[in-house]
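User: Here's a chain of 182 residues. Predict its fold as tokens.
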Amino acid sequence: GDVFMYYGLQNFYQNHRRYVISRSDAQLLGRNVNIQKSYCAPFTTYRNGTPMAPCGAIANSMFNDTIDLFYNLNSSVIQVPLLKTGNSWWTDKNVKFRNPKSYNLSSAFAGTARPPYWQKPAYLLDEEDERNNGYVNDDFIVWMRVSAFATFRNLYRRVNRVRQFADGLPAGNYTFRISYSI
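Assistant: Prediction complete.
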């Protein structure tokens, strides 16, 4: 059947009052807003005045490790196909998060900069699927739904049920490769 992959964090206090409010819902709806008047501080702008997109402590601390799963079949290793999309709640993806309107996403984010701890800007979060970028990126949306507890799990991927994985994961040995990102 369906197989879901989660990541779990311990002692990560997303429930701290100042952390929970550190976001701009108007910005996440794709609106052009003055984030100086938002609750995003201290993650609103860089010293040179360039606004952060997305702003706030929640976005800045987004989970960015990568996890790959491999099926060990006889003497070969097969990478298990994982789905990056369809992992967020429908209402979040279609109601609460929108990209800014523009003819392309990179121009929509022109004049802004990525949060300090991000490796790449919001419009390049998924280089394989252009529809999964910006504020509507599933990994980003899942992360922005903060946990009430210091120990929590978030949905990371689902197994794509194709080829030998059509019925789920066959019995056998598997290997995880986890790439830690700072």
